[in-house]
Structure formats: C-alpha cells, structure tokens
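We close this part of the discussion by returning to an individual protein. Part of our work consisted of pairing the sequence of a single chain with a tokenised description of its backbone. The amino acid sequence and the backbone structure tokens for this protein are reproduced below.
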Amino acid sequence: MTSVGITDQLRVLLSTADAAADLGRYFGVDELEGVTPAFTGSRFEHLDGGGDRADIANIVTAADLIAVQALSVQVPPSAALALLEGRLAEDLSVLLSQIPADVDMANADPDLLGSGSSADRAWHLLKGQKGLGWVTANKLLARKRPRLLPVYDQVVRCVVGHPESFWLSLRDALAADGNALHEQLLSLRDDVGVPSTVSALRICDVVLWMSHVAGHKEKDCGNLPG
C-alpha cells in the first residue's frame, strides 16, 4: 500500500466510533488503578519510566525486554544476554546514539528512516540475531524511540497491505497536509483520555492493530501468501 492508501485508510479508521472505543479499551482508561490491564501492551511505553529516558535511551535494559514481551513476543535468553551485556549491546548502542529520541515520525527527515540510515542498520542488526526477527526488531526499536519508530507486526502489516517500506509510507502519511493525521491522532488520544506520554505513532499502531486483530486470527491471515 502507498502512503496515499495508508493516509486514506487512517482517516477512515480515525473517524469511526470504534477507534475511540478500541483505544480506550486497549489502554484501560476506565479501569481502576492497580488492576492488571486487559492488554499488557498498554504498559509497553511506560514500564520503568520508558525506554527513551535520557539515562538509558542508548542502551537496552531488562525493562525494555520485559516491555517487548508485553507485546507478545519472546526474546530468547541468548539474545537477551547479548542485548544486555554482549557485543550486540555495544553495536546497537552506537547506532541508537545516532537516532534522535526527540523527533516525531511526522517531522522526521526521510533520511532518518531510509535504507542505510542508523535506524535501518539497527533494525537489520537486530533482525539478523538468532531468535529475534523483524517483528521483535521493530518492537524493540519502538521501545527505544517511541516517537520516531513504530511498532509493526503481522497484524498491522496485513492491515496496510505489506508496503515496501512501512516506515517511509507511514511517515509520508503522517506528514501530509501539514501533519494533519499526526494532529488527528493526538486529538483522538486526548479525547479518549490516554496519557499524553503515549506518542501519536503508538496511537496509530493501536488503532490499526485493534481494527484487525480479531479478523486476522479468524481468517488466519498470517498463513496467507505474501
């Protein structure tokens, strides 16, 4: 799907009552404090103060690995150790130091997200590790750079039609018409009562994911060609 297709699709999804209801349900805005959330992913960005805290923004911590597991992926022990204290940790830290933590995807220069960028190299570095793969790589990078890099898995990929470059297609969609979709996502977040510390990018992911997760499982989309 092109950026135009993603733009139109998001506009339609965001204008439905289901989007607000799904968002509130995912983040548990009406749940009592201390109650275990229905969706563990609702704690993804906030666990232990977030993965982009200034003191740990360029390193992977044990809390980051638990946060990723809250999004239903497992990091094998060998990969976890490499991310925490091995050569992989050093190599990833160098790349993370080159990826800004204070830039929203809608405002990002395409060069920050394109082939050969530090973000792209970090994704390939993680994806190439035994037991990780592209979904876990995306989720780990989204934990470290929640404003710039999106959570991306099989469900969302199915919704948006397997674009050649999801990052660049989504960036163009969010930036179109003076960041119109970016602002719409923030408005939806505020209207529903989701904390302002949740990025527009994460709101986008949740709206897309919630719109298709039930159908994805029923139709067994994951086993379809492509």
In short: The longest helix spans residues 166-192. The radius of gyration is 17 Å. Residues 40 and 70 are 5 Å apart (CA to CA). The chain has a mean pLDDT of 91.
